[in-house]
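Reopening: C-alpha cells for the zinc ion complex, inputs below.
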Amino acid sequence: MKISVKRVAVVAVLMIVAAVLYFGYPPEYKPVRFPDGKTFAFCIVDDTDGATLDRIRPVYDLFGELGIRSTKTMWVFPTNDSTHWPNRGVALDDSVYMSFLLGLKARGSEIALHGARGGNSTRDETTLALERFKNVFGSYPRVHINHYRNLDNLYWGADKLSVFPFHTLYSLIFGGAPSYGHDTLSEYFWGDIAKERISYVVNYSFQEINTLSVDPLIPYFDPSKPYVNYWFHSSDGGMLSSFCDLISKENVDRLEKEEGACFVYTHLASGFVKDGAVDSTFDARLRYLASKNGWFAPASEVLDYIRERRSQSDTITFRQRVHVEGRWLLEKALHGSR
Ligand SMILES: [Zn+2]
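Re-run output (same inputs, fresh job):
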C-alpha cells in the first residue's frame, strides 16, 4: 500500500494539535473557603539574598503595622563564597539578626530555610544547620527555598523539569546550575533529611497574582521528585518593580474577586528600602492590599489549611505535570521567571 506523505503530515499535525489541547488545557480552578470569612489568602515568601537589617527592617516594620504575617527565609551559616552577590547577607551567627528573627516569629511570622548558607554545604553541614535552626527556633523549618547556584539545592536548574523534552530544552536554552541535594551519590545529598523534616519547597514562579489559579493542585507531591514532600508555586514579585506590578489595584481586585491565593516570591533586600524608608509606591500598594479582607499569613499555615481540606489526591498526574512544566518553561523563556 502506498503511504501518502500528505496524509501522514495531516495526521501528525492533528496529533500535535490534540496533544497541545490535551496538555495545555488549564486545570479546573476551585476557590478555597478561607478561615474567619477571609476572601483571599496572601503569603509573602522572602528570599534572604543580600539581606542586612538596614535593608529589610523597615519593610518588616510596615508588615507589622499592617498586620501582615509572612515567611522569612534565612541562612544559618555565613557565606563561604562571597564572590557572588546573592550569597552575601547576614546569617544566624549575628546575635542582633537572631533577635530580629525571633521577634518576627513571636509575632506569628514563619522563619524558613534558604539552604544552610549562601554557598555550597555538604550533607554534614546541612545537618548541623538544621539542628542549629531547631535549637534557636524550637522546631525544624517547614519551608525550604533553593538558592541561586548552591550545589546542595533540591531538584534545581534543569532538574526542575522532569518531562521530556522540557528538561533537555531547559539545558540547551539556559544551561543552568547543577544541583545534587537529591543525588544519593553526592556529598551534598540531604534529600532524605529534607523528606523527614521539611514540609514544603517552592517550585516554579509565575506572572500571575492568583497562584492557585495557575495550579489548583498546590501543595502537591511529585513522584518524579520523591525527596520533596510537597511543592508549591509562587507569583513573581522577585524585585521591587515586579512586586509593585503584581499588587497593582487591578490585580488585587481580581485576586479578591477570584477568592484566590497568592504566594508571592520576593527579595525584600533588593531596593525596597531607600535611605531608611520603604519605597513609596510599594508602601501605598501594600496599604491598599492590606485594607482588603485578606488572610495575610505564612506560607505553611495557608498550605496546611488548603491541603487538609482538599478532597482530591495530592499527587500530581502526568498530564498536570506536562501542563505546569510547559507553562513555566514558556514563562521562563519570555520573562525569565524563577
Ligand atoms: Zn537566594
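The mean pLDDT is 94. The beta strands are 40-46, 71-74, 110-113, 143-144, 200-206, 230-237, 261-266, 273-274, 277-278, 294-296. Marking as resolved unless the reporter disagrees.
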